[in-house]
Amino acid sequence: MIVQALAFYLFSAIMVASAVMVIASRNPVHSVVFLITAFFNAAGLLLLIGAEFVAMILIIVYIGAVAVLFLFVVMMLDVDFGQLRKGASQYLPLGGAVGLVLLAELLLVLGGWVVAPSAGTLALAPTPAVEQMSNTVALGHVLYTHYFYVFQASGVVLLIAMIGAIVLTLRERQGVRRQRIEGQVSRRRDEVVAVTKVRVGEGV
Amino acid sequence: MNAPFPALSPALPEIFLVLCGFALLLYGVFRGDRSTRSVGYLAVLALVITARLVIGGADGRAVTFEGLYVVDSFARFMKVLVLLGSAFSILIARGYLERENMKRPEFAVLIVLATFGMLMMISANDLISLYVGLETQSLALYVVAAMRRDNAKSSEAGLKYFLLGALSSGMLLYGASLVYGFSGTTNFDGVARLLMQGNHPSVGLVAGLVFVAAGLAFKVSAVPFHMWTPDVYEGAPTPITAFFAVAPKVAAVALFVRVLVGPFGEMVGEWRQIIYFCSVASMLLGSFAAINQHNIKRLMAYSSIGHIGYALVGLAAGTEEGVRGVLIYMAIYVFMNVGAFAVILSMRQKGRMVEEIADLGGLSRRQPMLAAAMAVFMFSMAGIPPMAGFFGKLYVFLAAIQAQLYVLAVLGVLTSVVGAFYYLRIIKVMYFDQPAPAFDGPVEFEVSAVLTVTGLFTLLFFVFPSPILSAAARAAAALVAG
Q1: Residue B70, SS3?
Q2: What φ, ψ does residue B349 adopt, rounded to 5°?
């Protein structure tokens, strides 16, 4: 128990600290790196509550894809973050007040949280105990059976996204020099190399 | 845990359509831009065959895919409308794509895939399938809106549509998560059962319902969630605007009706206030904001906001008659809107599209048939008997009166009088104003065929109304009873 508590405080402290650093650091690349640290610690927290599937997805999707994409964007686009952050202190009181109100509201809502008594029975697949079945296995059981339909349809959504990306970005440019592999392979020495005798002092 | 393989036959139309979409995509990619025309025709054929499959499906209600998918008379009615709207849109787009240097086979493929998403939406019986269907549709729509990349307005339309669409999806998802949290199920039948047991709906469930309704109101562009409509309609290429005005609207209205009347039918007291407000606000804005428009596509955008307001009158009634009114209204709406956009697509001078109302000046002397067709659609939209539009309005107002929503019905009639002003102004411009420069060449074969079909439907609806009326009545009965 004490190990878990220690791990919880370790993960959450590092996460909060790196989240603060994401917005506080001057260098945008450092911000993204701190964001990745925050994601890793969030994954650790999820592991602690036994949601190992979400933890792994967080690492694979958010760190493996999203954060790396951010990194590329930050490095490739020349955004002046100092300029963007200029008015931050000006808006701090208002933003802070809104944040506090939201926090208070969240506490109120979560304090009065009641789960409907029939919620457990209505659920399509009641959550089995962690000892019997791990999260990933449980998801695997319903994803390809109960949710076969939406699983397939999600594939169509991804296909549309792919078509869309190609339709909106692919341009056929005129006069582009392309690599012609067959041309390269079929070149022969005597077609392209000419041996000439160059006399001294005259040049070719 | 070995689940039995789900029954596929109820979902045959969807499966057929999506496979056709894949096949057309492959064909289009291999043949390149030359295949735009043949892909378009094949897509229309696929949509027509799908409609045939929808009509030919077994009668009654069928649920499959573990309760995620439902098909009943209501779904069949709406699906046929959506498929017709999509097929018409692809047909009238052909000439435009070739003239405006937009020859890309992906256009028809994306419309087919968007239509697949709409069929999924109409047949959704679960919040998850609802959302996935909605996203399938929306994603394809964002892309086609921005398809003219070299045109700043089209890109703006696509981006605006995407951002606001993402916002509305967020609201819908938030509502769906609240509904799931407070009812313990995402399935519509499950939610209905929970409410049927006489449990007083919890505040959380009501809040979830409000967010879901707001998300759906975005998709049907009901006031106060209409802001994107005029800009997107104006910026998107005209045949795509025609498509936006028809198929997604029908699908979103179908979804709206199914969600509210189906699982949340017991909570009619809660959601009626929302629909009441949206309906009144849409009718008012649709009629007053359109008066000052000069661009005909913007005018059509405000007109469609107003039409959604009238359709929601029927939904506010919440009764079987109300649902029937909505169905009839949407059926007529599809035909008159496709027709009006077919006329707008023929508005080009010296090889360039024109969109001002003044450009229609004196059309009756230059192209009397085109002017007559436009006059039929405008009279119908204004709700002047004996055009079809009058009957659409008649049935929704009748339902509102039967549900004792007298104020709503009276407001509806008053705003349609205001709306008649700008519809009749177009007719006045066409018949009595000084002629503007002539439009180019003859109207294409596809456009004139679509104009003939929609024009005759709008004009002669009062002679043979019974097929539509009885189909709508069956569909409404299936939804309200089921």
Answers
A1: strand
A2: -120, 130
**Quick one: tokens of A37?**
């640290």
Residues B399-419 have pLDDT tens digits of: 999 999 999 999 999 999 999
All residues at 6 or more sequence positions from B384 whose CB lies less than 8 Å from its CB, including other chains: B390, B420
pLDDT of residue B1: 47
**Residue A166 distance to chain B (closest CA, Å):** 10
Tokens representing B151 are 């045109």
Cα separations in angstroms, B265 against B122, B222, B378: 17, 21, 35
Report how far residue B332's alpha carbon sits from residue B325's, in angstroms, rounded to the nearest whole number.
11
Instruction: Choose the closest CB to A167 out of B69, B129, B147.
Output: B147
Candidate from A123, A124, A167 with C-beta closest to B143: A167
Return the half-sphere exposure (C-beta side, CA atoms, 13 A cut-off) of residue B83. 28
Instruction: Give me the residues of chain B with pLDDT under 50, please.
Output: 1
C-beta neighbour count of B342 within 10 angstroms: 32
- From the list A139, A22, A123, A107, the residue with the least C-alpha distance to A71 is A22
Q: Å from B129 to nearest chain A CA?
A: 6
Contacts of A103 (CB under 8 A, 6+ apart): none
Cα–Cα distance for residue pair B256/B267, rounded to 1 Å: 14
DSSP state of B244: H
pLDDT at A110: 80
Whether residue A122 and residue B183 make contact (CB cut-off 8 A), yes or no, is yes
* Residues forming beta bridges with residue B71, ordered by sequence position: B62
Across the interface, do A153 and B6 touch by the CB < 8 Å criterion? Answer: no
What is the token pair recorded at B248? 């997604």
Q: Are B147 and A168 within 8 A, CB to CB?
A: yes
Helices (H), A62-117: 68-76, 81-84, 88-111
Contact between residue B233 and residue B244 where contact means Cβ atoms under 8 Å apart: yes
Q: Which of B133, B143, B187 sits opposite A153 (nearest CB)?
A: B133
State whether B184 and A119 contact (CB < 8 Å): yes
Q: And the tokens for A16?
A: 């909060």
**Sign of the four-CA dihedral B160, B163, B168, B172:** positive
- How many angstroms separate the CA atoms of A114 and B202, rounded? 10
pLDDT digits (tens, 9 = 90+) for A30-58: 888 999 999 999 999 999 988 889 999 99
Rounded to an integer, what is the distance from CA A90 to the centroid of its chain? 31
Nearest by CB: B129 against A123, A149, A159: A149
C-alpha span between A134 and A47 (Å, rounded):
12
- Give yes or no for B146 touching A (CB within 8 A): yes
User: What span, in angstroms and rounded, lies between the C-alpha atoms of B238 and B347?
Assistant: 10
Interchain CB distance below 8 Å, B185 and A122:
yes
